Amino acid sequence: MKIFRNLSLAFILFFATLSVQAQSGNEKTIQIKTSAVCGMCKKSLEKAMAYEKGVKKSSLDVDSKMLTVSFDPKKTNEDKIRKAVNDTGYDADDKPATPRAYNKLDDCCRKEAGAH
Ligand SMILES: [Cu+2]
């Protein structure tokens, strides 16, 4: 009977792989390390992402500063999303914030402010 269990496991794996592939066709999820420091940063970044073309959903974890973004690869790409993060005033991985946007941030949201 063991072979049947292995077979059904193989089927489950097969269909799981299929569904992952179907999803990756029109949605991609990336993580971007940002310079966000507080809940206000979270709101501004998630709002900026909501207005960004091709972005389906986004979520920032303030503690780790990681911004998770799901997007449609046909409509946008990772560089455009990082640029949008920069234009909101935050670093995105190795790309620094756009100075003009950064200067518009509230004092508490600037990276020099540190955690609070
Ligand atoms: Cu902030």
Automatic annotation (TrEMBL):
Show where the HMA domain sits: 27-93
Does the keyword section mention rRNA-binding? Answer: no
Signal sequence residues? 1-22
InterPro entries, sorted = HMA_dom, HMA_dom_sf
Q: Which domain of life is it from?
A: Bacteria
UniProt keyword terms in alphabetical order:
Signal
Q: Which SUPFAM superfamilies match?
A: HMA, heavy metal-associated domain (SSF55008)
| GO MF entries | metal ion binding
Q: Know the name of this protein?
A: Copper chaperone CopZ
